[in-house]
Please model this.
Amino acid sequence: MLNHLAVLQVVVPLLAAPACLILERARAAWLFTCLACLLSLGISIALFLQVQASGPISYAMGGWEAPWGIEYRIDALSSFVLLLINLVAVAVVIGANSSLVAELPESRHSPFYVLLLLCHAGLLGIVATGDAFNVFVFLEISSLSTYALVALGRDRRALFAAYQYLIVGTIGATFFLIGLGFLYSLTGTLNMADLAQRLPGLEEKRLVAAAFAFIVIGIALKLALFPLHGWLPDAYTQAPSMATAFLAASATKVALYLLIRMYFDVLGQEAVNALFPMGALLLVLGAAAVLLASLAAIRQDNVKRIFALSSVGQIGYLVIGVGLGSALGLQAALLHLFNHALIKAALFIAVAAVVCRVGGSRLDDFRGLGRAMPWTMAGLLIGALSLIGVPLTAGFVSKWFLVLAAMEAGLWPLVALVLIGSFIALFYVWRIVEVAYFQQRDGVAISEAPLMLLIPLWGMALANLYFGIDTSLTVEGSEQAVNFLMGSRP
Amino acid sequence: MMQSATHLLLIALVLPLLAVPGILLARNHPNLREAISLLTGVALFIVNLCLYRLGEGGVVLVEVLPKLAISLQLQPLGLVFGLVASLLWPITTLYAIGYMRGHEEDNQTRFYVFFAVAIAAVMGLAYAGNLFTLFVFYEIVTFSTYPLVTHAGTEKALKGGRTYLSLLLGTSIVFFIPAMIGTWFFAGTLEFQPGGVFGDDVSPSVLSVLLVLFAFGIGKAALMPFHRWLPAAMVAPTPVSALLHAVAVVKAGVFSVVTVVVYIFGIETVAQLPITPFLVYLAGASILLASLVAMRQDNFKSRLAYSTVSQLGYITLGAFLASEAAIAGSLLHIVMHAFGKITLFFCAGAIYVAHHKSQITELDGMGRVMPVTFIAFTLGALSIIGLPPLGGVWSKWFLMQGSLDSGYWLMLAVLSISSLLNIVYLLEIPARAFLKSAPEGATLQEARSTSVLAMTITALMCIALFIYGGDLYEFIRSARLT
Model:
């Protein structure tokens, strides 16, 4: 059994999805999904500990050894990301029922869980597999389920948002596939470790560059990297609140994982930069994302949209870390990947709680909630402080590493930009805090959010505080991942 | 011995926080609620006195990153600040009881809760063992005082609160954080050390940039041009203004500046940096300009606010002069200005609550209506001006000596001119009150007794500080600076 953990990680949610379809009662489907996600979390913890103790795990699907068969490969990087996705999924699923009751008719609950599980399985698969074509398959599984999840939103605008995302996402997937096709025709292999070995010896540098360009653009669309982020604000705003919480905390993180995997592991940082200035490109795009998306967030009056644009900005930080290319920069990116997932999970679950009680997520809907929903707003405040990067929150730790990495590279304007980005975050976040705490609410009394939403919200909020104070897990986990990535290419 | 210091430091940090649940539980019993605040304040002062007797010790609370911990450390500079803040907390509470009830303010429980949190943060800041700890508590001071500034909840209060928060957090995010991470990057440590943490290999120009970042990043020190938050925060109730100006916020700022100069850079290093003259003159300009602005203010609290900006300039000036006498002068001025300015704010608030007068031109003849208040005001004003027999004379003395030691003759003139300006804009108030004729039908009517008691205590403290100024100076000089 223990030997099969690597594949079970993906199989459990993947099989749970159709099983969930059989359960027609919404509550039963919810409980079953909770169970599946908890099991999946347990598996990821076991994998994480196993990798920490004894190094990468390789699993040959059906006993066919790589590079002929499909290999599942869990190393320090993927076990770190798997753990994160599972944490977020559990938090979201626990709260999902209470939120869905308020947002969707009961007939749509079961499909929601099915899609969520499929998306979850897809994301886990991307991270767990060691096979590039398998990555594409799981990418499609997660994307297709995401389009449907977005379309579940109660507003008709959700359909348009989903349609928009569908088109952009499909283009992205196609680009990714074309890139893979190039690589396959060049090397005759799709196993990522095998690719990494064969690519350096190739003569056709230009083709490799083209392949990599296709792959990067494909990933960038999924990642919502500026300027390819157009689909994200609409999708996040229109999707059911808990779906947004899940996507914001996990989907973009997995896309970043994929970028790091391709850039550092498969093609190799130096090899890529010899072909074209990838690092510099990422730095410029990341910087633009931080600045422009954060500024755009200030002007929004829907809180979901504020946080969605903030996500685009935060992706900028992640990409800057990757673009710096140093061990410290990569570690900053991985830390922020983890911490930002916690931040956005907390924030979007809080928004879901507000939608659940008030019925909307416009800034106006937040009036006086500091008094009416004190626990929800306190949770949101903790998430917001972490987003700004206040010390003793998780957000501060990743900013610390990012600034240090920028200093190490001698890029002082970048240091300034990262900090100005945090400063802008203060503005858009504080508008919400001010409305919630200092404006009065008239009309019907609002009660505190249901307990089943407060539990995951506070779980995430406390995680934000915990990982701001005791950083041993995140810092060591990311350090091992970086050592693995940097060490794998001498 | 060390063990008890460890425990006491923790108690000093936690004690004000322990009052919070008590205050919340007693929210429907105002007398009990205020008694809890007051008693905790007195207990905290006693704890600080015990710390003073112990004199040394330290404790590491939690290690956030390798070699980067939240830790507390006893040292004379911090003790001075801790003692002042913990003594003024119960006195301000005493005053607030009279003010908040007399003014029938809403949300009084919230007020006392955040007051207690702010004091806890000040304790952490005073006894910080490294720059990171200092920074953490510095930010907590900002956040915990924000609800106090916006206490009224009106659009005007929110606007003031926005300025307050965005300037304080803005400077700390954009300047303080890079300065701190830069220090970590170049020195490899943030632990406070007499004489500084930087090795010889760090070039003076890098140090200069870092020092400037710190000077502006510690926005609470209100060095011009980042002083706007202080007048903006005047929308707060007067006890909060007293807290901001005397106990917590601005003192946290200037204390941080002094600490950074002494324990991160080292005074000898600062004295030689090419940027130092610029900062010295900037502080001098801040002193004079703020005084000139203060003269033009008719609103009582705004005039006091600009006076504070000016007085803070003295303390930052002392820090950047970076001689032993000047540092001692700075520390002394933290104490002297705390007691002087808090008296002035107590008086301003008392006049407002008892007679709803907030403009200086309305105060003609009020000295006969509120004699105790205006006598206290005069004492506080004289101390800030720096005349004997009040405490303020000592700090000015050592600041002047520090200017001479470091060869900044011009600063001597700045300090003298500023004293003259102080006389003009501060003594105008009692002069109007006592010398002009009283309004028709005015009878003797002071503010509530607790408020009057509070301002009497602080006014008498100004005199006591004159008498015991020498002891205080000796104690500050016992600190190891190099």
